[in-house]
Amino acid sequence: MKRRSRDEGARKTAGEWVAAVDLGTTKALALVARRTAGGWRLAGLGRAPARGVGRGAVTDPEAAGRALADALDRAVAGLGLARPGEGRAGLPPLWLNVAGEAVYDEPARAEVAVARGRVREEDVLALRELLTAACGLERAAVGLFDERFLAAPGRPLPEPVGKPAARLLGEARVVSCPGPLALALRSAAAAAGCEVAQIVPAGVASAWAVLDGEERREGAVALDFGAGTIDLAVFRDGEPVRAASLPLGSQYITNDLALGLGIPWMAAEALKCRHARVDGALVQREVPVPGGAGGTVELPLVDEIVLARTDELLERAGAAIEELCEGRPPAAGVVLTGGGVALRGFPKRAMEVWGWPVRLGAPAAGDDRFPAAASPAAATAVGLIACAERSPALLAGGAIQERTGVVAASRRLVAWLSGLV
Ligand SMILES: Nc1ncnc2c1ncn2[C@@H]1O[C@H](COP(=O)(O)OP(=O)(O)OP(=O)(O)O)[C@@H](O)[C@H]1O
Ligand SMILES: [Mg+2]
């Protein structure tokens, strides 16, 4: 890439690039994509071991910032920039995910008076600001879903702009996370010298990477089974309507193996990834404990421990899905992502436990140069890029130049995201 003067370079870069980082329990995964005529094209992928983050909580923003910086540096290293540090600093504001049990949605209602008897764009924006504010001052809104407009109670007013009304009422579900968590994510980005464009619930991001149009319309659930969190998003009529995050994940299976077999945690992790299965196939074999600590383990015992915990996690996730779907089965089934779904037989077992259609979701990153982006574990990062793609302010070359305005007006940004994301 030809280097330009600092100002020109920054402006140009901001218009052409999008950057996202999935800060997970085990890894920071950064993606950098470039805008082309046909949409975004993946340009760089960088991975670094996670630090300062666990089960959605940012325990150490500085350490998280270092992991984020490492991942971003690796992602921009392939872009042909002179110095990776400069490359990272020249990126536009980042799209980040948020997870953990403190991420949830709740119903919100608000109303505004309509000037001159006809609804204007500003009325809708003002209403959305009130709706997002419903999560309270201690929380940060990260999504506004399932929005409905009314002229009066019981009188729906879809697509209200330009329609006659004296008042505009709104109902929606506002997704939020604790304010300090949003702040910690911004601090982590700041420690890496970056700004934040938008924070997206992890399950919603993953869903955008793997649900097809029909699934989004008919009503599917996306479930990202990570190391420390299970992130959920429910779609209906093409849009997300509910989001949740459970503080549970594949690490629980590793913990059980380590405790149950009395072996080091790293050995248990390797045993799970290499040998464990929940597909019911009985493999009568003994294998050495990984890591050279000595001793052997019987695989049927490994599978028994793994199956018991997997079933428990699936039951808890299933209960959460039922609650989010208000007792109805997910019409278009459940699409699984996250590193934990690599456990042999996991999708089939999920189908047996839930009784709903289940499929494995691999993100369509659309670029053979980055095979890691097509893995279910990359769904959150790829989905963050997909979210950015749906954002007109960030797609339009000029809008991002006013990026301080975009960031400051984050509530407004969240609001129009609801219509697009
Ligand atoms: N082959 C495998 N079999 C079983 N589990 C696996 C396999 N490969 C990876 N995993 C598990 O996947 C998990 C990592 O998944 P992922 O990368 O989605 O997590 P994360 O994004 O870092 O965490 P989270 O989203 O929960 O914060 C680890 O617990 C790991 O043990
Ligand atoms: Mg994850």
Overview of the structural elements:
The strands form 5 sheets. Strands 3-2-1-6-11 form a 5-stranded mixed beta sheet, with helices on both faces. It has a 5-stranded mixed beta sheet with strand order 14-13-12-17-18, sandwiched between helices. It has a 4-stranded antiparallel beta sheet with strand order 7-10-8-9. It has helices spanning 6-16, 61-77, 84-89, 121-133, 179-191, 202-210, 213-218, 251-261, 265-275, 299-324, 346-354, 379-389, 392-395, 403-408, 410-420, and strands spanning 17-23, 27-36, 39-49, 53-54, 57-58, 94-98, 104-113, 139-152, 155-156, 167-178, 196-201, 221-225, 230-236, 239-246, 286-288, 296-298, 334-337, 358-360. Helices cover 39% and strands 27% of the residues. It has 15 helices and 18 strands. A hairpin with a 2-residue loop joins strand 13 (230-236) and strand 14 (239-246). Helix 4 packs across helix 15 and helix 6 crosses helix 12. Among the domains are: 6-100 and 180-204 and 382-403, ATPase, nucleotide binding domain (Nucleotidyltransferase, domain 5), CATH 3.30.420; 104-179, Dna Ligase, domain 1, CATH 3.30.1490. The site of magnesium ion has 7 residues, from loops. Residues 22, 24, 202, 224, 226, 338, 380 line the site of magnesium ion (MG).
